[in-house]
């Protein structure tokens, strides 16, 4: 039997394999030489599905079929057991996740040369905010899927704790660290006491001073940026002919939310838009919205907004070309726009960190290090919120996409090695 650590993320997934001991653990190459693979799956009308970058490429190249991204975000929601059309059949979202994870597991087994039967699965501190029962259902669902794809023993570790275990491997002295793991779907925080000596201990519950999290991640920043800067170009906030009414907003919020996009492709939406067009003051805007939905290009739009968001970490302004929607159409997005539309999300992240420090019984000055992992820690509003929580702490940049997977593999070595 072989054990592994599996970080199934909203945006990306990694899987760590064990060698002859914890010092020899490494992330598996899941797509070519890449150790990360996007959490995406593409179903063509016939034949086998593609996952990861290949799935995204098939969609971008215009191949017929269905792209699904941010698969993890349905855990803890009513969507999990809903079915969705895939080619000539319907699959539940649970079955879609199982197909994706089975493919990831198979690639890792091909590299390692043996079956993987034991897994430490990463999980956010909260799958669902303020709903312990929903949180339990989400973990149970993920455990059930893991068993469906062939894992006999399944256990869980909080993702920020896993990141702490990876960080601790390089320490030469004791310190108290605030671990910030901001991924595609959740923001998770832990205050942990770490040291080389403590790293050798099997039982670490006493070193975990506090855990907290909030269901905010990179996809939420995509959504708010899209709603604020792009969706008005497609009619959001525009008036109806009847005074005092605006165009219904639900279409735009679904189009801006990764896990909801495919719901617009059921045929009913286009019929509704044809009726709506006769009742709005600016029908040309609804024509743009209909063009995106009719061409099933919602994910194209979401990916372009995501790329713009990421680019704003490096440059001040992005010109988002939307000529594929309508010739000459474009959206200008600057850093102030990102900051304005994400202000509430950043505030909620800061509040969560403050609560975590309070639960740990520590003032901000007691934190020696801020360990940052997850792609969304690169976003300026997020980074500012984290650094403001412990301004005197040393900032440590973790492996943006690999720290959690490596830490889960450290934990797998302890539990199953």
Automatic annotation (TrEMBL):
InterPro entries with a match to the protein in the record: ATPase_NBD, Hsp_70_fam, YegD-like
UniProt superkingdom: Bacteria
Keywords: ATP-binding, Nucleotide-binding
SUPFAM superfamilies: Actin-like ATPase domain
Pfam families in alphabetical order: HSP70
Gene3D superfamilies documented for this protein: 3.30.420.40, Actin, Chain A, domain 4 (3.90.640.10)
MF terms (GO), sorted A to Z: ATP binding; ATP-dependent protein folding chaperone
PANTHER family, per database record: HEAT SHOCK PROTEIN 70KDA
Protein name stated in the entry: Heat-shock protein
Organism: Methylobacterium variabile
Organism ancestry: Bacteria, Pseudomonadati, Pseudomonadota, Alphaproteobacteria, Hyphomicrobiales
């Amino acid at each position: 039997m072989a054990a592994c650590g599996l970080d199934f993320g909203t945006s990306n997934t990694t899987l760590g394999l064990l060698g002859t001991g914890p010092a020899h653990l490494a992330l598996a190459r899941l797509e070519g030489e890449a150790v990360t693979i996007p959490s995406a799956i593409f179903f063509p009308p016939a034949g086998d599905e593609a996952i990861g970058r290949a799935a995204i490429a098939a969609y971008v190249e215009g191949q017929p079929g269905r792209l699904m991204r941010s698969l993890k975000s349905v855990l803890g929601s009513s969507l999990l057991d809903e079915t969705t059309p895939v080619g000539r059949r319907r699959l539940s979202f649970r079955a879609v996740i199982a197909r994706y994870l089975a493919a990831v597991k198979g690639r890792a087994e091909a590299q390692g040369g043996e079956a993987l039967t034991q897994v430490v699965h990463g999980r956010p501190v909260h799958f669902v905010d303020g709903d312990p029962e929903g949180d339990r259902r989400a973990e149970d669902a993920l455990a059930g899927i893991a068993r469906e794809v062939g894992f006999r023993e399944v256990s869980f570790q909080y993702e920020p704790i896993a990141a702490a275990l990876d960080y601790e491997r390089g320490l030469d002295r004791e310190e108290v660290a605030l671990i910030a793991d901001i991924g595609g779907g959740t923001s998770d925080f832990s205050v942990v006491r770490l040291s080389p000596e403590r790293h050798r201990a099997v039982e670490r519950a006493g070193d975990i001073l506090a855990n907290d999290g909030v269901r905010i991640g990179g996809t939420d920043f995509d959504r708010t940026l899209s709603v604020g800067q792009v969706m008005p170009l497609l009619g959001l906030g525009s008036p109806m002919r009847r005074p005092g009414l605006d165009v219904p907003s639900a279409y735009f919020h679904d189009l801006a939310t990764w896990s909801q996009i495919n719901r617009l492709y059921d045929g009913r939406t286009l019929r509704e838009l044809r009726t709506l067009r006769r009742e709005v003051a600016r029908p040309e805007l609804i024509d743009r919205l209909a063009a995106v939905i009719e061409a099933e290009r919602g994910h194209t739009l979401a990916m372009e907004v995501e790329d713009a968001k990421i680019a704003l970490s490096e440059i001040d302004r992005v010109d988002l070309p939307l000529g594929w929607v309508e010739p000459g159409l474009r959206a200008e997005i600057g850093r102030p726009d990102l900051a304005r539309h994400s202000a509430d999300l950043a505030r909620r992240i800061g509040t969560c960190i403050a609560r975590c420090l309070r639960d740990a019984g520590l003032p901000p000055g007691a934190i020696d290090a801020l360990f940052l992992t997850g792609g969304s820690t690169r976003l300026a509003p997020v980074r500012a919120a984290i650094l403001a929580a412990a301004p005197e702490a040393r900032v440590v940049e973790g492996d943006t996409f690999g720290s959690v997977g490596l830490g889960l593999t450290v934990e797998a070595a302890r539990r199953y090695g």
